[in-house]
Specification:
about 280 residues, mainly alpha, Serine Threonine Protein Phosphatase 5, Tetratricopeptide repeat, 16 helices, about 0% strand
């Protein structure tokens, strides 16, 4: 959505479109949504008015406009006093203000009533990360993926958290789940290969790098990773763990050389090119 569109279009249409697409344009939402609320233009909108209150609330948090956020929250609390959704907004408000104990208490109360509440679980994980309790965040995220096994973002986050704690076998399991859920995404293959490389599983890493290159030809991370695997396994001429190692090594050299030629012409960066060429030929 362009700025021109947001200026010339009907404000309600703009807000509706932003809700539909999930696009984060907090400045736009505060400008046009705030005006609608300030001048009482939402009174005739029925239930849509409450969606706008929530939308402006989220935008206000993004912009650290605590007064506007609190005003929207109070209106929503008055209208929906027992709503879990509104209570979750209250938790987000306190979390954004840095009042983490109150936010955590709100999330815990929601989870006590509904242990599978998606947004409360996600907010609890984010809050634990903010507090530096990575093991606690991992525990909550494990609970979450046990209930919602198809959530790609959750598996990616759990993999990253495991890697941050050097729990590479657990991270590898997460990547395997991601590959099953999204087999044509090359980055899942690359991350899995990097974890296998860290675990000294060079043959598995090399195969995963090759799979990544099938999905995304000439991806630099996959090319460098495959080259490192071949070197670790004894070099192209003595490598026994990877089929067609010599051909793969030549392909890696060719693709990386082309990439450097494109990014660094021969008239520039000669010393860098010498270093790269020496390493590639090793």
């Amino acid at each position: 959505m362009s700025l021109t569109t947001t200026v010339t279009s009907d404000p309600l249409e703009v807000l509706s479109e932003l809700r539909r697409t999930g696009e984060r344009r907090s400045d736009v939402v505060m400008r046009i949504g705030g005006d609608l609320l300030l001048y009482g233009k939402t009174r005739s909108l029925g239930d849509e008015a409450w969606l706008i209150y929530e939308q402006v609330f989220d935008a206000a948090l993004d912009l650290a406009d605590w007064e506007a956020a609190q005003a929207c929250l109070e209106m929503l609390q008055e209208k929906f006093p027992v709503s879990k959704r509104v209570r979750l907004l209250d938790g987000k408000y306190h979390e954004a203000r840095g009042i983490l104990d109150v936010a955590e208490q709100i999330y815990d109360e929601i989870l006590a009533e509904d242990e599978t509440h998606v947004m409360a679980l996600k907010r609890k994980v984010a809050l634990l990360k903010t507090k530096g309790d990575i093991k606690g965040a991992i525990g909550k995220l494990v609970e979450y993926v046990d209930c919602y096994t198809n959530d790609l973002e959750a598996w990616m986050e759990l993999s990253a958290l495991y890697q941050s704690q050097c729990m590479y076998k657990q991270a590898a399991y997460c990547q395997e789940e991601l590959i099953l859920l999204q087999p044509i995404h090359h980055l899942h293959q690359i991350t899995y290969a990097e974890i296998m490389y860290t675990l000294n599983q060079m043959e598995v890493a090399a195969k995963s790098y090759c799979r990544a290159l099938e999905l995304s030809t000439a991806h630099p991370r996959a090319l460098y990773g495959l080259k490192q695997c071949i070197l670790k396994l004894g070099g192209a001429s003595r490598c026994k763990g990877v089929n067609h190692a010599k051909e793969l090594d030549l392909m890696v050299i060719d693709q990386l050389t082309k990439a450097y030629e494109k990014a660094c012409p021969r008239s520039q960066g000669q010393e860098l090119r010498k270093v790269v060429d020496t390493w590639l030929e090793s």
